[in-house]
Amino acid sequence: MRTDERGLAYGGGWLDRAAGLRTDPGWIAARLADRESVLLPLWRDRCLVAADRMPVRPAAVAVAALLAAADETVFLGLDAGRAVFAADLSGQPEPEALALADAVEAVDVRALVGALTPAEAAVQAYAKGLLHWHRGHRYCGGCGAPTVARDGGHTRSCTGAGCGRFLFPRIEPAVIVLVEAPGEPERCLLARHRGAPEGSWSTLAGFVEVGESLEDAVRRELAEEAGVAVAEVSYQGSQAWPFPAGLMVGFRATAASTQVRVDGEELVDARWFTRAELRARAAEGRPLGRIDSIDRHLLGSWLNRAS
Length: 307
Fold this sequence. Notes:
By secondary structure, this protein is α+β, with helices and mostly antiparallel strands. The chain is 25% helix and 29% strand. Strands 9, 10, 11, 12, 13 and 14 form a 6-stranded mixed β-sheet that branches. Strands 3-4-1-2-5 form a 5-stranded mixed β-sheet, sandwiched between helices. A hairpin with a 2-residue loop joins strand 1 (38-43) and strand 2.
């Protein structure tokens, strides 16, 4: 059974990204001046929240001061016709940023999962990822000249004479895999990553490299990190993971054998778990994957599948 992406955090965003409109500077300027538009302030990749731990929505009268103080403002999309923007206050000291937004705290969006709907978390994470990209691409990688934002913040262009290259936000795809043992009893492979707390086990994951398919990345990562050869690979679902620019692509794989040999670098241990063992861990209050991550859904779907 494939993962239902509607239940995954950072997915299912409802915004119309209005690609055909955001290239018009006049239209963007008019939306910024519209008192019905929404502005989401962030500070150094963190959401600014009110006393109820919900993201602030600055009043229209405060927007001008926020825009003046922002290092970058980007257009995210339209919500039922209302424009939604995000403003980066990273250049301000934290107390000043909080005061400008009438916020009490700056928190990582991951700390808000559970309080926000998946779609609400998607918008906050989208804002974070796009603003993070702008801070890292203020200069051209080809000639070193400054770059400027265009198209509502979805493009940057080089100002260098004779260069003029365009920069676009990139994502960094990674595979995350639930590996099943061949034959009986039915088991799945979990690993303990270097630096993880004792007794903490998770699915295996890794970034896709240049020149390989997603399925190739699954096979390579499992072979490199756990010494596991894979017989079958099947796609399960994907999840936006803008921390800062990831895309998690979930797979289920069947190992060719139960042999495991960890690399000692990324992984310090790996072992096969039965459903009964995982249920016992859950009953003890040990988490099965991150609450906001697709690995929880991969584990949950395997655990709940009839044996």
